[in-house]
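Notes from the pairing session

We agreed to fold both candidates in a single pass and log them together. This is the raw record for the first candidate, unedited. Please don't reformat it; downstream parsing expects exactly this layout.

Candidate A
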Amino acid sequence: MAPDLIVQRPEGLYCPPGDFYIDPWRPVARAVITHAHSDHARIGNGHYLAAQQAEGVLRTRLGEIDLQTLPYGERIVHNGIGLSLHPAGHVLGSAQVRLEHGGRVWVASGDYKVAPDKTCAPFEPVKCNVFITESTFGLPIYRWSPDEEIFADINGWWGRNVVAGRASVLTCYSFGKAQRILSGVDPSIGPIIVHGAVEPLNRAYRAAGVELPETRMVTDIKDKADLKRALVICPPSAAASPWMRRFGDAQTAFASGWMQLRGARRRGGYDRGFVLSDHADWPGLMGAIAATGAQRIIVTHGSVPVMVRYLGEQGLQAEAFDTEYGDDLVEADVEAPTST
């Protein structure tokens, strides 16, 4: 039997014949990066390879790095391994890594979603023998509503708060979720204010050609009445910081797939929860896996035992990798500045 093209090592997922890692969680000489969330893209690697569309967000998050980019679908050969990157539909520049060697094809998907998203290239099924899939929302209870319904709910909530004279503070991940929300809300309702963790990423999205409405920093607001009409986009950490005080008696909400769980909004202390995720739901995961045609599936981060058991019951060869993915460290550690 031919050796596996991707194996686990303490540093991360390793391609032995290619001598490189995919989304390593320890510093390595050569890293192929699926996307710029910090559980997948970390500082300290010698050389980075990522999709061309990811360059701006990677440099925004990681600073000066030795970065090589590759257009979606373009194939290169490294140490005899055919390598190409294909859209994952997760966030701007997210990619699945396709490896070909000795007549076998492996695909490492990173994080992905199959729902439409105006801010990134849509998920592209890639035929393969072995597919490495996430399982963040790998339970049958997770089934997302269409974006139009979610954005209508957000706009309605914001509009009602404007009438009541209250700011609408919507917390979400600064990278990916914030820009997706911005692409779907109605800017005619009022001004849009973003946190200092969000605006640099907005700039990277705009530079990549993604259309977003005008956003302002809170220090740009001269008329305090505008604060009462504003939609405020910020990371969750900011909602519990002194930065929030300037918005007074604001309504707070959290946009996340976890909001589908009963009690999640209440435990977080939010007034509203919007079920919006940048990961595939259960039908999305199952559809994406089936579309690959792979008979061997390796499951990572999330509801791993459930997915492995279910896929095995469907006649697939299912197993797991134990990874350190699942939390965006930048989101977890960010401190809300008091001046932005």
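Candidate B (folded immediately after A)
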Amino acid sequence: MMNPLNRGLVLLLMAFSAQQSMAADKPVDSHASSLPLSQIQSFVETFETIREGYVDDLSDQQILNKALKGMVAALDPHSEYLTKDEVADFEDLTSGNYAGVGVEVEMKDGKLTVVSPIDGSPAKQAGILPGDVIVKVGTTYISDLGFQDVMNLMRGEVGTKVTLDIERGGKIKHFSLERRLVEDESVSSKWLSKGIAYLRIKQFQGDTDTEFYKIVKKLQKEQPINGVVLDLRNNPGGVLQAAVGVVDTFIDKGMIVYTDGRHKLSKSQFRATTKHTLLPKVPLVVLINDGSASASEIVAGALQDHQRALIMGTESFGKGSVQTVVPLSNGAAVKLTTALYYTPNGRSIQAQGITPDLVVPEATLTLNKDHFVVKEAELKGHLSNGTGGADRTNTAEQFKLSDLAKSDFQLFQALTILKTLPTFDYHP
């Protein structure tokens, strides 16, 4: 007796055959695509060949899932077919509440590349870096696996361990990580100096913009904000609407981002409003690097086009495509690339990224201990300051760099510029 799946495939073939016969009696329509009957037949034959002859015994549903995954994954690095169980996992990821190692990855040139480890995650604490290439998860080489399959390998029960083999600089490094429940607040803040606030967005979740507004208002109650460093380094992106909301904090009118694709539903525009514009004139420096992707690039690109911020750091990742999760009748879904997004001035970020206004590489500062000078205050019989100021000699204190300069040179540069940066003459 023929099983239901095979019977369905046969009926599908019969329907295609009947439809093609009917089409043969009609005038040719250049806009109507012909039904791929021979390809459908090839699919059925391939399906049967795998079912009957593959070394492992796979169920019909397993074979069909693999076929669907392969079909969608072949489109681009970001499109994928999600089973019903994977849809639930995907929703956990976008909510920022899941058990795993806390690393954001993308397929880049056929390699599973780390965009960024999430702050406070096992991956971050273990020393995994943006640009690392994951070659093996546990005992499984990932070269032939789909994106979601790799994610499933890295996720698991809280407290269990997983090993990652990572290629970095031509060498393989081995990491052993303990999975944890990642409950990640996406926004953090602190004061860098009087009146200068530091705001870091780790990733864009569904409520990131609301969280961002609350933190800004809290800081404003503590003291006036005279400058802001917005840190988007190693932020892999996330929810588009959250990125739009963050930009809305700094501008009150004009385009923020627009999307364009084949279908009408993929064409959209997002414009600034006055509802949440809390800091329309405050000097702003935005930090980005090669781990800043997607929604991070939307924020940086919009603020750059509006001349509302100085973008500093290194060139961003370059993911300028929009994925839409399309639910299917059986509970599965297709995460499909449906459009590209564009900055207010019409720039596509896809495969190019955002170029900073001021390129500042990541660097480690060291003191030249052999440097020796003699200053006026050390000369015998030197004149005093004349206004009561104390003498300044060539002491070791003069060579000490601040802790910030040593630990984060890019942030140190941003703070230095903010202290002298005039208020932006903002004209959207």
